[in-house]
Design goal:
Length: 228
């Protein structure tokens, strides 16, 4: 399933995680946070917001309906957000509402061809690499690094099967246990863990600052730096 062909089609309806900064999560976000074991708001406030300047330029992979994009834009009053998705996310994010601060690129592959080179301070995603297999993750990270300024950073959420092993693959975490008996191209949560992710990041030329910021019980989030 996590083939590019599957990914290009699967999220056509526009995936949303709700308002990730709201003090009181709605029912859907509460359910996602129960599954991931953590708070989206706390993650954003502790790990993302302190790394943004008002004029930062941010590249976001896979915004869907834009739960994280709206949160990023809130803290980029003089900055810019570029998004890259297989879907036409401008129908949900409405770039015209943001005075030129938001550019949405619809793509068909992982080359990031329409995105300007060496332009971004931060490359961000949540809920995206967990659906990409490790070969595609390495391609995404390799091509995205060329778009980030030297010294710029990445905050990338990914699936972590070792954490799932520790949690015991319980139903409440939403990843079916029988995925363990299937190949990566048959499932929507392909194998990944911190060791594999570190290898992908380093092969793509990133310096791994932290392979997991420890924000979530089920999944991991890497903090990376593009060497100067
Ligand atoms: C599960 S949704 C998550 C949406 C949003 N980030 C959130 O957390 O609410 C995954 C989104 O990433 C996009 N996506 C997944 N892999 C991608 C890739 N390799 N390149 C571009 N977009 C991708 C999908 O089209 C979809 O819109």
């Amino acid at each position: 399933m996590p083939t590019l062909d599957w990914l290009r089609k699967e999220f056509h309806y526009g995936y949303s995680s709700g308002d990730v900064l709201a003090w009181f999560p709605d029912k859907h976000r509460r359910e996602e946070e129960r599954q991931i074991v953590g708070s989206y708001r706390r993650f954003f406030m502790r790990e993302v917001k302190p790394r943004l300047r008002p004029d930062s330029k941010v590249l976001e992979l896979g915004p869907g309906r834009g739960s994280w994009s709206r949160s990023l834009l809130k803290y980029l009053p003089k900055g810019e957000l570029h998004t890259v998705d297989f879907q036409d996310v401008s129908q949900w994010l409405q770039p015209k509402l943001y005075d030129g601060r938001l550019t949405c690129h619809q793509v068909t592959d992982n080359t990031m061809a329409p995105v300007p080179d060496a332009s971004f301070d931060l490359f961000f995603s949540l809920g995206v690499l967990c659906h990409n297999n490790s070969a595609d993750i390495q391609t995404v990270l390799t091509n995205a690094r060329k778009k980030v300024k030297p010294g710029g950073i990445a905050i990338q959420h990914y699936g972590d099967w070792k954490k799932l092993d520790t949690l015991g693959w319980a139903t409440r975490h939403n990843i079916p246990k029988d995925f363990k008996d299937k190949r990566d191209d048959e499932i929507w949560w392909p194998r990944n863990d911190q060791e594999t992710m570190r290898r992908c990041c380093e092969n793509a030329g990133w310096k791994v600052v932290s392979i997991d910021l420890g924000s979530f019980g089920r999944d991991s989030v890497a903090l990376l730096e593009n060497p100067r």
